[in-house]
Structure formats: structure tokens, C-alpha cells
Amino acid sequence: MDRKFFIRGYRETAEFPILYDDNNYSLEEASLKAKEYLLEKALLNKVIIFEENDGEEGRATKFICKNRFGSLQEIGGLQRK
């Protein structure tokens, strides 16, 4: 069974997401979509990609944010199979 991932986007100071993308993506697709959101939506400062676990929010898999220079940084990645 293929694992599916979804995206949540945050402002720098918000503790709750302001962007909910509940579409199911592969990890690679979710990473590309997350970067697209960060580059296009000025309010977003960070995006977290979550693994879907039996139709519910699972563990955070990847964190992508804008650094102080405006470039994107990725932290994490799926290590287990």
C-alpha cells in the first residue's frame, strides 16, 4: 500500500494552520506542492507535510520554511519503508 501525505501551512507566529490541503499526494508531490505554496502565498512562512494514518493525521514527515533570505529550507524526510 502506498503511503499518502497532506499539507498544512502556517504563518510565522500562528500555532494553527492557515492553509489546509487535504488532497493525498506522494511525498515527492507533496514536497513540490508545499514549495509552490510557499513561493506563491505571501502569508505562509512554513509548511509541514504529514503522513496520513488510516484516514487521520499521522506524524509530521517534512518541514519546509523560508529562511531569513527568502530561500526555502527543507528539514526531514521519510526514512522508513
Total helical elements: 1
Q: How much beta, percentage-wise?
A: over 45%
Q: How many E strands?
A: 5
**Quick one: overall form?**
globular
**Series of H and E elements:** EEHEEE
Structural class comes to alpha+beta
> How far is the first residue's CA from the last residue's CA?
11 Å
If you compute it from the alpha carbons, what radius of gyration comes out, rounded to the nearest whole angstrom? Answer: 12 Å
Strand line-up of the largest beta sheet = 2-1-3-4-5
Characteristic key phrases:
single chain; 81 residues; alpha+beta; 5-stranded antiparallel β-sheet; 1 helix
Provide a short characterization of the protein structure.
The chain has one helix at 27-40, and strands spanning 5-10, 19-25, 46-53, 56-66, 72-76. The chain is α+β, with helices and mostly antiparallel strands. It is globular.
Describe this structure in words.
This protein has 81 residues and is α+β, with helices and mostly antiparallel strands. The chain is 17% helix and 46% strand. It has 1 helix and 5 strands. It has one helix at residues 27-40; strands at residues 5-10, 19-25, 46-53, 56-66, 72-76. A 5-stranded antiparallel β-sheet has the order 2-1-3-4-5, with helices on one face. A hairpin with an 8-residue loop joins strand 1 and strand 2. The longest helix has 14 residues, at 27-40. It starts with a strand and ends in a 5-residue tail after the last strand.
